Amino acid sequence: SKTSGKNDFIIYSERLESDVLRKMELEVQLQKAIELNQLSVHYQPKVHLQTKTIVGMEALVRWEHPHLGMISPVEFIPIAEETGLINEIGEWVLRTACVQSKQWQASGYPPLLLSVNVSALQFQNRHFCEVVSSILSETHLQPNHLELEITESIVQNITESVSILKKLKKIGVKCSIDDFGTGYSSLSVLEQLPIDTIKIDKSFIDRLSRGSRSPMVKTIIELGLNLQLNVVAEGIESSSQSTILKEYGCSIGQGYLFSKPINAQHFTELLDALYQK
Ligand code: C2E
Ligand code: CA
Ligand code: CA
Ligand code: CA
């Protein structure tokens, strides 16, 4: 009826208004988040699927606001990108994770490959490569112990991206294409990118649930291997997924099956348990 239509509109508009207000509030609060020590980094292990040994970890930023509670990066990273705060936040995450990684190495754990997410905006910032090299020399982390995860959205500017990737390669850090398969990059673009790894998006891994096979996942893995790239699977939640991935030739995986992202202290305890320290 007419009345309910009108009510729907009111509800919708109120909802819209509260979404806008929430976003405005987060924008304001995010400006102070670093300074007020509200950000932290969690680490999720990357596991060799055959041997189950930890080969690396992905750094994932967390924001805990004293009144608003935990705010997901899915919500605040886009806001950070829109406001340009991503440069500062991304640099903070990179430095924090490199310091932590070096500390684990200094404690005697075998060196792990640290993966850090880099947003397209950060990647295209003209100071990006200098920031990466200065953080590496500051923290004394070996460049080949760092991997940057970028998404396919960077290929919107292919020439520029290739030149940045070449500079990063010269520094000695590794690069991975994150959420692989969800973007729109063509195969010819993939061939041109000087990268080391593709990380298959969780949406593809989800197709392997309850032991079902996926010609698509099999083909993506073969594509990566044929291009001499490392192939990592994200979002593995069951051992049947892990089994099929191994069979398809994927050697490294990440997901709740092995561990959720955990804070540095818990990650240290995990390493302690594994290496009996
Ligand atoms: P992403 O880079 O694809 O990271 C993987 C996300 O999947 C993480 O969510 C992780 O907690 C989650 N995940 C891992 N394994 C599983 C699993 O088995 N099942 C399920 N359901 N989820 C799993 P998170 O930490 O909430 O991060 C979400 C996204 O936010 C990330 O997606 C990334 O795009 C962005 N992000 C997080 N930290 C940073 C950062 O430091 N910088 C930038 N630029 N983006 C970040
Ligand atoms: Ca990632
Ligand atoms: Ca991902
Ligand atoms: Ca993903």
How would you characterize the overall build of this protein?
The protein has eleven helices and ten strands. The longest helix has 32 residues, at 2-33. It has 277 residues and is of the alpha/beta class. It has an eight-stranded mixed barrel with strand order 1-2-4-5-6-7-8-9. It has helices spanning 2-33, 73-83, 86-106, 120-124, 128-139, 158-171, 187-192, 202-205, 215-226, 239-247, 264-275; strands at 39-48, 54-65, 69-71, 113-117, 146-151, 174-180, 197-200, 230-233, 252-253, 262-263. The protein starts with a helix and ends with a helix. The model has no long low-confidence stretch (mean pLDDT 93). It is globular and about 55 Å long. Bound molecules: ligand C2E and calcium ion (CA) (3 copies). The site of one calcium ion has 4 residues, from loops. One calcium ion (CA) binds at residues 58, 117, 149, 178.
Query: How much strand?
Result: 15-25%
Helix coverage percent: 40-55%
Tell me which oligomeric state these chains represent: single chain
Strand order of the largest sheet: 1-2-4-5-6-7-8-9
Describe the main β-sheet briefly: 8 strands, mixed, barrel
State the shape: globular
Ligands in the model, by name, code or SMILES, are:
ligand C2E, calcium ion
**Cα-based radius of gyration, to the nearest Å:** 20 Å
Class by SSE composition? alpha/beta
Q: How far is the N terminus from the C terminus?
A: 69 Å
Stretches with pLDDT under 50, minimum 5 residues: none
Number of helices: 11
Mean pLDDT across all amino acids: 93
Q: Give the total of beta strands.
A: 10
SSE string = HEEEHHEHHEHEHEHHEHEEH
